[in-house]
Specification:
653 residues; alpha/beta; Rossmann fold; nine-stranded mixed β-sheet; seven-stranded mixed β-sheet; 22 helices; 49% helix
Length: 653
Amino acid sequence: MLNEKVKNLFNSFRLRKRVLAATDAFIVVAAALFANWPLPVVAERIDRPELLIISVTCVFGCFAGLLFFGAYNKLWRYFSKRDYLSCIKGVVCGMAVAYGFVYLFQRQIFVEFAVLHTLVALFGVCAFRYMFRGTFVSLVRTGYKEAALANKTRTMIVGAGSAAQMLIKEIRNNQADEEEGLKSSVATHLNPVCLVDDDRYKIGKMFEGVLVAGSTTDIPKIVKEERIEQIILAIPSCPPKDRQTILDICGKTGVPVKVLPFIGSLLDTSSIGDGSTSYVNQIRDINVEDLLGRDPIRFDNKDIRAFIEGKVCMVSGGGGSIGSELVRQIAKYNPAQVIIVDIYENNAYDIQQELRMEYGDKLNLVTLIASVRDYFRMNQIFKKYKPQVVFHAAAHKHVPLMENNPMEAIKNNVIGTFNMGTLAVLNGVKKFVMISTDKAVNPTNVMGASKRCCEMIVQFLAQQKSGETEFVTTRFGNVLGSNGSVIPLFKRQIEQGKPVTVTHPDIIRYFMTIPEAVSLVLEAASIAHGGEIFVLDMGHPVKIVTLAENLIRMYGKVPYKDVEIKFTGLRPGEKLLEELLMSEEGLQKTKNKLIYIGKQIEIDMDKFINQLWDLKNAASANDDEKAIKALHKIVPTFTTPEEFNRTVKMPAV
């Protein structure tokens, strides 16, 4: 009860002003008594009646001065040097005016007394404010701290370094603001209970008032002992493998885990806590990049800018996962015009609206609804807009769907690519970039075989040299977060409380993020000379079941206990392992250590064009059997998934 009254007293702005004014009055009177004490600096003592008149006058003068300079309108949590200066001005000016009045009525003044009185009063006023802000307010807050923290999330911070230091400071400052009644933010709901760090010197010591309770291996034990409700990983510079190890340990606790990203992205660390820059607002959920166990790959923006700036760029399939990100990144490099071509109007509309909101009239954007299968419609678009760079991302990519609809994969992927490539040559396009997939390597399904056929078409057109168009192919693995990928599916299943479905316990995939995939496409295009297949060094392959387990832990749940993982069996056309290269291709380095060029396999061009014509005729006749036979002839590595999975050597993961 007493604590509540004290809290109300010091959290009430009006009451604090009254307390300060009364205290200032007491200090001024006490300073007068002190100055009238027999001291060597004071030549003569003042009689009590006269001293009373001087004290009362100085009380009113000092109060008026402090009020005039705003000394009673300060936020104590942020009381600064500038605020102390206001107090100094208020006291000095107020005392000067007061002694002026004393002189007018008494026609005499004791200079030594007046100076000493002013200095002592000034010291007392400033000293009390310092004490009020620091010691006393801290003591008051400790009385109700436990009650205030009861409704806050008990948080463990991993890493006792500069990131954790700034994070704790901001949490404390924000909670002080909440107590002042100023604001409420994410930070006000966090209670830093403890830290963990692998530096043995730090263990057992206090860090910004929070105990370093142990090392990362102690996390499960500490979570139970301290009733931790949330873990924040605050080691921005942690190597990917170490970060993955820590995330694995945290995942076993069943407690939600969040991450503080790279601290260097915050430009002004000096402003932390004042609301202009926030570490707390940078805290995010674990995302798919964290689950990869490696850092996102960065690319050379200068080369990309030089390649894109001032050019008319067309993106087919511009509303899809890869296509829309291509459009976003192209827009950043000041193109002369961006042309989005997509058959699906909803996706095209969404990316169009997004770019218009972000760029307005600064971006020359054209959005067209058209199919790459329609040669005459696409020719009309090429002739009207005269693109200089074409990114061909339009394709059917879902393996099981295309197994059941092979003709659609052939028409859209193969014939669509042939149309786009041919029109690029006929209309003087400078560079044509085709988006491929690792499923094109030793394909076991129609979709993969159709994309391998697309690669061969691009290679064929590059070798014809019948125009000025440079052709390039980019090949990469599974894209995390794209439409139809496993991550969105797993998330939906976890959020709906359903079992997470994985096709096979041993299935392995190479993964990259959408921004990485698009950056590869752009940089490959910027350094290409024509005819290359660019491949990204994607690091180590990842088991899908491991990805599912980590994603479940990300939600603060325990795999196989809180969320079941159900193995459904390989889907039609599915391989246990996707490859990035065929054995004959090999690798050639580029100036970017993470981008390689696959050596082109020699193709009998006359034979290829005849086989391609047979495939086109079969597709036109909607003859599935003939079309698939023709596809097998064009792509001799096209085999069954059963045969591939029986002979493949699985890498260690």
